[in-house]
Structures are given as structure tokens and as C-alpha cells.
Amino acid sequence: MEGTGGVSLDSAAACLAGGGVALFPTETLYALGCLATNARAVADVYRLKRRSLERPLLLLAAHSGQLYDLVALDAAPQELLARFWPGPLTVLLPARGSLPESLVNADGKAAVRVTSHALAAALALRTGGALTASSANRSGGMPARALEDADGELLTALKNLGGCVVRGGGQPIGGAPSTIVEPLPAVSGKALRVLREGAVSVDMLTAAGFVCLC
């Protein structure tokens, strides 16, 4: 890793495709990620973040096609995905067998979104699949809105692991992380449980015709 200056998009994609871990910008915050289907790399992300395996990481994709083999997209209201993807809305959906167990919660669901950040999307495309996209900080620490905000110990641990920091691309807008919702088809086709309110507010969801439950 070339300091916080980082590496090119192509180099980062090669790192991820080879089972590595990268720090990269998203539409909200900097994220620490790997190829979601690589169980060893996913375990490395948990170790770097010092995160409990009982707290599944969020996933990010360039387009919904990257998610078809990972989750049941038809379990979500299609108007929800059409309205808020790409963008900072993470949706909890039934997982398929291709995901490592640590990315699936006790109810058999994984949290996914399609990113609106051009560089993050390009990285997922060039890597060849959806990426984990948990905030780039140790568990309990402050998320990084700029590279200079990133935890120095985390950057050192990433370097020692052979990971990389992606150079270029638009900076995250900062502020709130992605909003996390769970569709509740048993209640109604428009019902959502809001697990974390973030960049997409409850008011925005309600204005789009969804019933939000906390």
C-alpha cells in the first residue's frame, strides 16, 4: 500500500479479486471491503475491524445483477428498489447459499445495496462481484469521512495484511451511513422495518408510499 495516497482502481480490483481487502470511498463514508463470496477475505475484514461475527457486514454492488446469486431480490417491493437504488438504502433480504455464513444473520438474511458512488461501483464491476462495505473503522470507532480521518492502526493493519487504499474518485458526502430496512411482506407489500435510519430518512420512505415500522 502506497501510504494513504493509495493505488489505482485496476490495482485495487486485482487485490480484491485475489482475496485481498481494500479501503475505498462510497456515497456516504469510506468502507473496508472484500469480495463478498470469499470467506477468507471476509474473515480478514472482521479481524481488521475487530467486529463480532454476530454482526453481519453490509454488502455493496454495482448493479442488481451482482446480487441475484446472493439474495432473493424478489422478496423486496420492486418499487422500493426502483426508487432508492442506486443509493444509500440497504435492504435485508433472504440469503442464498453462495454467501459465507458470517454475512448472514440468524434469520437467514443478508444486507445489500446498489451503490450510487461511481468509483465504488467501478470497483465492484472490475472485481467481478458484490463487495462487503462496512465503515472503515474499528468497531466502536468513528467512521472515516475522509482518508485523513481513517484510524492509523487500522491502516497499518491493512498494509500488513497486503491490502490497499483506493486512489481517486469522489469523496464520500459524509453525514449519516446508509439506511437499513427489512421488507415485511407478511404485514403488507409496502411495510418496512427500519433497522437503522441514515441517509434515506423515514420521511423519504413514507413520502414514497411505504409504511415504516421501528
Overview of the structural elements:
Its EC number is 2.7.7.87. It catalyses: L-threonine + hydrogencarbonate + ATP = L-threonylcarbamoyladenylate + diphosphate + H2O. Helix 1 crosses helix 4 (118-127). The longest helix is centred in the first third of the chain and has 11 residues, at 39-49. Helices cover 24% and strands 20% of the residues. It is α/β, with parallel strands linked by helices and 214 residues long. The chain has one domain: Alpha-Beta Complex (DHBP synthase), CATH 3.90.870.10. The strands form two sheets. The protein has a seven-stranded mixed beta sheet. Strands 7-2-1-8 form a four-stranded mixed beta sheet, with helices on both faces.
What's this model, at a glance?
The protein has 214 residues and is α/β, with parallel strands linked by helices. Helix content is 24%, strand content 20%.
Topology at a glance:
Blueprint: H1 9-17, E1 22-25, E2 30-33, H2 39-49, E3 59-61, H3 78-84, E4 89-94, E5 109-114, H4 118-127, E6 131-132, E7 134-135, H5 152-160, E8 164-165, E9 179-183, E10 191-196, H6 202-207, E11 211-213
Parallel strand pairs: 1-8, 3-5, 4-9, 10-11
Antiparallel strand pairs: 1-2, 2-7, 3-6, 4-5, 9-10
Helix pairs in contact: 1-4
Please tag this protein with its features.
6 helices; DHBP synthase; 214 residues; Sua5-like_dom; 20% strand; 7-stranded mixed beta sheet; alpha/beta
Mean pLDDT: 93
Taken in chain order, the helices and strands follow as HEEHEHEEHEEHEEEHE
Radius of gyration: 16 Å
CATH architecture: Alpha-Beta Complex
Briefly note the structural class of the backbone: alpha/beta
Biggest sheet strand line-up? 6-3-5-4-9-10-11
* Total E-strand runs: 11
End-to-end gap? 42 Å
Helicity range: 10-25%
Helix count equals: 6
Looking at the structure, the CATH topology is: DHBP synthase
